[in-house]
Amino acid sequence: MREPILRVSGVSKAFGGVQALRDVSFEVYPGEVFGIIGPNGSGKTTLVNCITGFVRMDAGRVLFKGKEITGWPPHRIANEGLARTFQIMRPYYSLPAYKNLIVPLYSPRARKMGGWRGGGKMGDRDTVAVDILEEIGFERDSFVPYKPASALPTGYLKRLELARCMALRPELIICDEVFSGLSMSEIASMIPLIEKLQMGGVTLVMIEHRLKELFRVADRVMVLNFGEKIMEGTPEEVIQDERVKEAYLGTEEGRDA
Amino acid sequence: MEQMLRKERIDRGIRVRTEGIYAISHWQELTYLILPRLLLIGGFLLAPICLLPFPYWQRIVSIICVYGLLAISFDFLANFVGLVCLGGAFFVGVGGYVAALLNTQLGLPSVLSIPAATIGGAAICTLLFLPCLPLRGIYFAIVTLMYPLIFSRIIEAFNLFGGTDGIAGVVSFPNVWLEQYVIISLTLFGLFGLRRLVNEDIGLVLRGIKDNDQAVKASGIDITRYKALAVFIASLLGCFAGAYLAHLYMWAGISLFALDFSIMPIAATVIGGGGSLAGALVGSLIIVPISELLRAFGTLRIAIYALILTAFIVFRSEGIMVYAQRKYHQFERWVKV
Hints:
Chain A is an alpha/beta fold. Chain A is built from eleven helices and ten strands. In chain B, 42% of the residues are buried.
């Protein structure tokens, strides 16, 4: 059996009287795309926040590459190679799109790794930033990478969010709903990016509402409901499962998912 | 039907602004870019010479620079790092006391005591501000406002450093030219240095913290460290102003912790226009002479002062610098809707 790159065991978190997470455990193996789904309020984002250090968990342990990262501050976890995107996009609105990437490129990890594709230890970060943006679908010759982030449409902001993670050259990216709020054609153009990342050796954990698109890319899927893990399996198994249908149809009737 | 008009703004088409080409080819474009900066630098450098017959107003130039430094450091922290810092008086007080102690107790000449007080004082300020760095917005503002109040009370209560009498006998500057040009050159250096810093990569990290600290954390950057660095840079300016004041007045006392040093820079930044750093200096260039001229009104001074401030906020809330920049860089015309 391969060593898991991320091992989460027994994570619990309560906000006041609300038990957001109860004893959630899972393992992610190198190179796979691991999906996490669940109806609204099932604790998916809280789980991400606990793993990446943004929220202190009440109980449980997180091991990344066999190293205990429980309770570490977010920046240390990111420097270890575990990057995350935010569900609500968090660009630096006052800065041009490519300048947004200067921040992760300034991190200790990016500096140590020599930027993107060996851009030199103190290489020109602007060039590196535009390279990354081109990789993720900003046309280099257009005005788009140079526009302030506040002028960009949602689709580009989602890409920018992903680009911010890529700039860290992480080994694992946790994507918190990268597809939500996008049109079908925008999602169709995002999926190759995800596949390209995976081929580049990055492990992905994807939290999604859009099940159809997730099942196209995910190798294994975990289902959360009311903060508890109800099952884990391949996308086919998940679709067949009665408990999953109940969780979704019972609470969100009529949704096209 | 009444015709609707709206104001259209178009950037002036100078070649330096075209995409990617930064070659400046013509004296007109060179002048266009350099003139405003030259006006400010030249104006400040010539001020002591032009005001030679009026020693009182020469002194005002120094005070303008002191408040200018504080306003620049306030603007830098508030608009580029997102820390609304009311600790200006604290920076001045610490810088002033350190300089006075170094000068009177250790006998260091002002050439050494001012730089030492600037760096040492900034280190002290940064260390003392460390506990409140995780605070944001109004909470940070309140806590930093407490520092000068607490320190002046502690000095008073425990009769430290001469208590309410302060430390007298600090060495003054050898001549008026040095006195003037030290502060003027360092104010200009601080202004243009910071303006460059905020566009460097490290400055972008700081601006990122202002826009969105969570995303900076997720980018693997320890925001507390960078906030501390920003406070250190800002307090360098403030402590220098304090050390300079101590040597200028040949005295350091609890009036260096006066809230004027916290509040006036904010007023200057509001009047001058925040977010450009130069606006902060322009603001203090306006506000300090106004407050001096108003001395003639005696007790009514504060009332008139408040009226002027209110007028600025109501009619030019964006600030003079922002307004002037827009007028300078853009055409405006009325077009039909």
